Amino acid sequence: MQLQRHWGLLRSLIKREIRVRYRSAALGLAWLIINPLLLLATYTLVFGVIFTRKSGVGESLGDFILTLFCGLTLYWFFAETMNRSCSVIRSQPNLVKKVVFPVEILPLVSLGASVFSVCLNLLILVALSLLINLSVHPTILLAPLVILPLVVMTAGFAWVISGWGVYYSDLDNVVLFLTTLMLFLSPIFYPVSAAPEAVQPFFILNPLAFPIEELRKVVLLGESPDWSSWIIYMGVAAIIGALGFRIFQKGRELFADFL
Amino acid sequence: MPQPDSIVVENASKCYRLYDSTRDRLMQGMRDLLAPVIPAKKNKPFYREHWALRDISFELQPGEAIGILGRNGAGKSTLLQLVAGIIKPTSGVIKREGRITALLELGSGFNPDFTGRENAILNAQIVGLTEEQALDRLDDIASFADIGDFLDRPVKTYSSGMMMRLAFAVQTATDPKILIVDEALSVGDAFFQQKCVARIRQLLDQGLSLLLVSHDPNTIRQLCQRALLLKEGRMLAVGTAREVADRYMSVDMAERNEVAGVASYGERAAPLKKLDQESVESALIKERYEPWFLSRKVNLETFEKLAAFDRVGNGKAKFFNVQIVREGQVVNEVEFNELLTVRLMVSMETELSELNVAFQVRNPQGTGLAHFDTRLTGDIKNKYRGGGLYAFDWHVKLPLMTGHYSLRAVLSHPPREAGGDWEYLDSISCAYIFFVHPIPDLPFGAYLALPATLNISSDQSFDVGTSDPSPTGKCPPSAP
Q1: Are both B287 and B413 inside the same structural domain?
Q2: Which residues contact B178 (CB under 8 A, 6 or more apart)?
Q3: A12 has a chain B CB within 8 A of its CB
Q4: Confidence of residue B270 (pLDDT cuts 50, 70, 90)
Q5: Which of A73, A175, B2, B381 reaches 20 to 30 Å from A164, CA-CA?
Q6: A22 has a chain B CB within 8 A of its CB
Q7: Do A168 and B125 touch (CB under 8 A)?
Q8: Chain B residues within an 8 Å CB radius of A96
Q9: Which pLDDT value is given to residue B122?
């Protein structure tokens, strides 16, 4: 792919994107850590304390917190990237119309910034694990590998959505609704095994279900991921990634005309 | 296969679809999507077509500079976007070879919250440098932009001038091979403009290929060898920069004339036509004017040949000769600063007043150096009889350095009210060509040596010296 040529530029842009998000805030990048912790506390209060837990996986509140945070980390990554993708091209008409610029890397910039958040969240996860269990499973080192297919797949979706977003700003609302829906349809507040038997097979259609479950395996249970499933998932992710890129490249010819 | 660092444009056209609403756009999108499945019916499309460019063809050779002229909305910017590869042509082919740097809107990639330094580094990367290269060239960029401490302040605190300077500095610090510039030089203060032009010259000397858009014909004349003129998306003319720049001015004048004719004169001005040999009916004119010509020793053929190259006007009055005369003799070669007569001969086709008879001395690139007209001499209120022949003799000294010069001659009515347009009766881009002989001791690097008186004073008494005044005795008082 011709994306490699722009690797240096992409790296600089991601750096800038991360800084721009928190530049004007007094606490700066600290928000990257404060934010997820505050949200984690809120969700824990609502779903771990106020609602009685019937999930069965986390026996203790500590386990619940770790289970929850695995799910939230990946969900936030996906939802944030999707919602930003809608307007990532539209909001920078100058780069489309005024300079010769590899527009295809713009969706990857917001994706990259979100990947950075995921990395921070994984560190938080390690810290929480140490705090709660006083130990960390060494399999946590496999976490990046578990997350990789999701990143590739998300990139594919991001290309498609950012491309369409140029033409139809209605997409913002659709994506916002779908990502909110996914917060509840993904096994975040519950494991897949807690869902009714009849529904369970359908979780495979949810791109978040597999990586969330696998991440829990490597982080909480200290088990290796299910490699054969991983390979299939990675294959599907690669196809979606490549397809998304193709769709984007096909649509980009008219970007400058519309903006 | 095009040569390196060149651009070939073949019959490029660009059509925009204009939709009245997003709904129409969605409907058309659906129809396009279904087109392969459902055979197209002759339905009325949901859009209107707007052809921004039609059938544009030209070639930018390596090391060549081409100017693009045209009024607002002529399609200049669209053409640059096409060539830069930012938009795709609806039809036609554009072949590019070599890295293209486009200065379409300076500073448009800047983020206002970041400092000039940060923006410069990132922008240089957008143009194609690596981060290390960008850091290496930062000193160059900073010294060219010359914005001092502001380099480390957020761009949002910059004046628009400072932003332009930084942006231009970044873009040209990247060793562009093909540079595309859109009006970028018309912003900023005069000093910076000069600096930009000098930078582009320097790059041109190093073999840069340049595509420059401007609505200022002088900039095009200065920097480009060739030019093309766009009007309403079509190529009206292509040729040497000088020819096209003159053509542009004529077209511009013609458009103003139409407005002036309606607005200021109540009636529509006589339709503007190209006044060339045919329309002047040279034989008839010769017969009528010949006796008068002969008494003044004029050469009608030369004048007509020169004038026919580029001449417009509504014909209410016409030049029938323009010449430079020394002691009754027509001359093409003159001395520095000698007393000469510039003679403009005009035939009035109708009774006229408020007539501005003007000429300009132009350098070989066509830039006007000196201007003379009957408003400045206080002769604007004169009345001229219909059918009359007049000679306007200007007695002037032209302190020009050696070289070829030309005269541009214009007959016009000034606007009747403030903000109105000029009406052009006759305008000839090149009515006469003459050569100024070199003289010793005249500095190079300027066209004019204007007369001045000099006083020298000092903090101590000083020796005036006893050298000869001027070796030629023809210098203006300014020369020692």
Answers
A1: yes
A2: B5, B6, B7, B60, B96, B98, B99, B100, B101, B208, B209, B210, B211
A3: yes
A4: very low
A5: A73
A6: no
A7: no
A8: 86
A9: 87
Last residue of a domain, one of B417, B436, B455: B436
ipTM exceeds 0.90, yes or no: no
In order, the DSSP letters of A140-175 are GGGHHHHHHHHHHHHHHHHHHHHHHHHH-TTHHHHH
Domain count, chain A: 1
Q: Which of residues 164-193 of A touch B (CB under 8 A)?
A: 167-168
Residue B122 lies in a domain: no
Tens digits of residue pLDDT in B368-394: 899 999 999 888 888 998 888 888 999
State which residues form the domain around A188: 2-258
Per-position DSSP letters for A71-123, written without gaps between them: HHHHHHHHHHHHHHHHHHTTT-HHHHHTS---GGGHHHHHHHHHHHHHHHHHH
- For the segment B110-115, the average pLDDT, to the nearest whole number, is 84
**Same domain flag for B20 and B84:** yes
- Of B194, B227, B243, the one marking the end of a domain is B243
Nearest CA in chain B to A252: B87
Exposed/middle/buried for residue B232 (C-beta within 10 Å: 0-12, 13-18, 19+): middle
- Considering only alpha carbons, which residue of chain B is nearest residue A166? B22
Contacts of B87 in chain A (CB under 8 A): 253, 256-257
Expressed as residue numbers, the domain containing B32 is: 6-99+176-243
Task: Identify the pLDDT of residue B33.
Answer: 72
Tens of pLDDT, residue by residue over A189-242, are: 888 888 888 888 888 888 899 999 999 999 888 888 889 999 999 999 999 999
Does B314 share its domain with B190?
no
Name which of A24, A99, A254 is nearest B113 (Cβ-Cβ).
A24
How many Cβ pairs within 8 Å bridge chains A and B? 65
Are B286 and B417 members of one domain?
Answer: yes
Q: Do B81 and A24 touch (CB under 8 A)?
A: no
B87 at A interface, C-beta within 8 A: yes
Residue B185: its pLDDT value, please?
62
